[in-house]
Amino acid sequence: xxxxxxxxxDLNPMNKNLERIPEILYKYCSFDSYGxxxxxxxxxxxxxxxxxxxxxxxxxxxxxxxxxTDLEGHELFAFLRDKAREHHPTASESEIQELVELGRAQHQxxxxxxxxxxxxxxxxxxNRFGIFSLTAEPASLLMWAYYGDSHKGVCVGLRSAVIAQxxxxxxxxxxxxxxHKVHYSAKLPEICVDIGPGGMTDxxxxxxxxxxxxxxxxxxxxxxxxxxxxxxxxxSYIFGTDAITKVIIGSRTSDENIAALVEQLRKxxxxxxxxxxVRSQSKYALEFEELL
Length: 292
Known about the structure:
Largest sheet: 5 strands, mixed
Helix content: 25-40%
Number of domains: 2
Shape: elongated
Order of helices and strands: EHEEHHHEHEHEEEHEEEEHEE
Strand order of the largest sheet: 1-5-12-13-14
Structural class: alpha+beta
């Protein structure tokens, strides 16, 4: 496996790795007009975002490598021709020539470092996987500022054991939710984009999938865990009220949003504890007061 990719962030199956997973994983969110935060807090409805729409442009990103980078002239032509014939054994000579020309253009993009060179692979990733980001840290001033609407939002605590049970149930339906602890790196992953006639090898697929939970070390302070739902990008999944154990209200949350949240929790007969984050009077930190 590529040395820049993680080797120990795999926490699957979750039910056999619960000792390595925080008992509660938290999701920061704002009080949006669509009611997303209310649904998450009250019945555990999680939205799995496509990596294409997350806030970090380097998410799911990598440096493409290829055996043809240093080839020129006849060597490049022979390499591309062999590849084209390998993938399309029944193609006509004119069709092979068209494929070779496409290969030349891709070769130039790779040599120029053109980001469009990996667009087709990224698009497959974006459409195939949904991401639900969580953290072990509910008192981060930075994350309250980033994702909790400048402390006007909410931080929802989900039980890892309940998520693990849903993972097991989904597997029986041939549906897959994976949990990985994000790996933070100083360098972008490198992945060989030479694909054989049988498609990507298991090693290539494993390395490509690992880009979904590999991020710049600039984000290390987030201590992120990622639920990754295969074939469910931009879709919701309901973990249920039992999954929600804590709902932490931001220190600047409006009375109107607090009232709407409490009403929704009562409507769903939630048993989660409701906690208010308050600004410490003696240090740069949050303190917590139980409301319900």
